Amino acid sequence: MDIRNAIRQLALSGSEMYLTVCTVDAVDEDARTIDCTPINEGAPLLAVNLQADQNQTVGLVSFPAVGSEVVVGFLNPAVAVVVLAMEITKSVITIGDTEATVEDNSVVLKTQKGSATLTADNLKIDIDGTTLEMKKGVSVWNGGSETTANATELQKQLNICKARIDAIINALKSSAVAPQDGGATYKANISTALSGLTSEDYSNMIDDKIKH
To answer: Are residues 127 and 160 both part of a single domain?
Structure first.
């Protein structure tokens, strides 16, 4: 007899549910049941239900920790169900195509075309094949290994480069020459015009915290 039918019979009969406190001996996540032993040293209880309908995987189910205490209710002598749990290790809620699984330092959300997995030091999001993973200060798109450019630093260095090029062009155009000196005066004027210019530095252009 499944739990739904047992509840119906309990309601129709006017009987009261019998409750007992047990210690969890084993957990079967696939069957969504536990084995436990009453603390009054009664006979062990096998395959105690964690969910109302054991034939489906929808709804809410929480898995108690082995060794923890639970309150077990008897709908009839043959059907028992966990009513309360002192400590749980995992909860799963499934509504249609959406599923959320919560464990210690781990949350997994799934929809029809997307998922998100959050752990203590990592977040991974997958939306229909497009992925983003963030861990230890690094963001990775689609599992790539190529770094991205620091746009602000790149613009700064390009401006420095432009200033140097402009200065060279102006020096070539405007520097004075002297006759019959082999270009010495022209060379000296250009060197003076170009002295003090800053060279660009592209060493900080790469942002290795973002990869694609």
So the answer is: no
pTM of the full predicted structure?
Answer: 0.62
In terms of domains, do 114 and 81 share one?
Answer: no
**Domain contains 115:** yes
Q: What is the pLDDT of residues 134-179, one digit of tens each?
A: 887 777 777 655 566 667 777 787 888 888 788 887 877 777 777 7
The answer to whether 50 and 1 have CB atoms below 8 angstroms apart is: no
Tally the domains of the chain: 3
Residue 138 lies in a domain: no
Domain residues for the domain of 103 are: 97-133
